[in-house]
Amino acid sequence: MKEKIYTIPVNDAFNEECECPLCSLEEKLELQALDYYLGPSLMEPDHRIDTNEKGFCRRHFELLYNREENTLGLALIIETHLEQQNEPMLKDFEKNAKALSEDSKLSLTKSIGSKLSSKKTAGEKYIDSLIGQLEKRLHKCAICSKLQYTMDRYIDVILYLYFEEKEFMEKFKSKKGFCIYHLKMLLEGAKKYLPPKKSASFVYSLIKMQTENMNRLHEEVNWFTKKFDYRYSKEPWKNSKDAVPRAIAKLVGYFKSTR
């Protein structure tokens, strides 16, 4: 199989022994993104516009801060992000402060009546609007967006290789399945990128492999629990010593135990 630049990361991930090759691929992409946002992106206006608008999710803020490589750079990103996010909220508040003040003076009867009525006060409409704005903000992250876009491209590559390269198809089928998150991505990719016939064929093989490996993992976790029973104390551990972290990784995505 002749490799191209966009197939190399995919093949590297599928050469690894793990519970989800796509977790391995995404983790490497995430590490590259962390390096990028603490380095070159600081000098690129387009990416500063992106971080000003989106910021980062809790996980990626934590990973960026804990790197301790460029705290000044991170502070500069946060400074302009706060400026862009705070200004519209302040303006919106100033426009609706009077409505909130008026609602705060409602009598008990009117207040209860407002709750029971489908008609909302101006203050209530503002609160609903604010909740919606914050909900959207909480789901924005420059790194998550970048990862999602790149992983979608790699899903397309995986599906192409699966049907065009016999060697890759065999490699794919030899894996231990995928985490639930990336299983969903593969199913969505099959629906998006494949015609019905190929999609059905791929999903059949995928789910067959997934269910077999979920059962295999269940048996390994089950054996791990049995090893704490005195009746099995002299039995070998088999492949169950690290079954718990591997099961967590299968359920929620890449997970590294610190034990």
Largest sheet properties: none
Helix share, percent:
over 70%
Beta fraction of the residues? under 5%
From the spread of the alpha carbons, the general shape counts as: globular
| Rg of Cα set | 25 Å
Number of E-state strands:
0
Order of helices and strands: HHHHHHHHHHHH
Number of domains as seen in the coordinates: 2
Look at the structure and give the mean pLDDT: 90
Q: Distance between termini?
A: 39 Å
Class inferred from helices and paired strands: mainly alpha
Indicate the low-confidence ranges by residue numbers: none
Count of helix runs = 12
Give a written overview of the molecule:
It is a single chain. With 259 residues, the chain is an all-alpha fold. It folds into 2 domains: 8-13 and 20-143, no CATH class; 165-252, no CATH class. Helices cover 73% and strands 0% of the residues. Helix 1 packs across helix 2, helix 5 runs antiparallel to helix 7 and helix 10 (180-193) packs antiparallel against helix 11 (196-226). The model has no long low-confidence stretch (mean pLDDT 90).
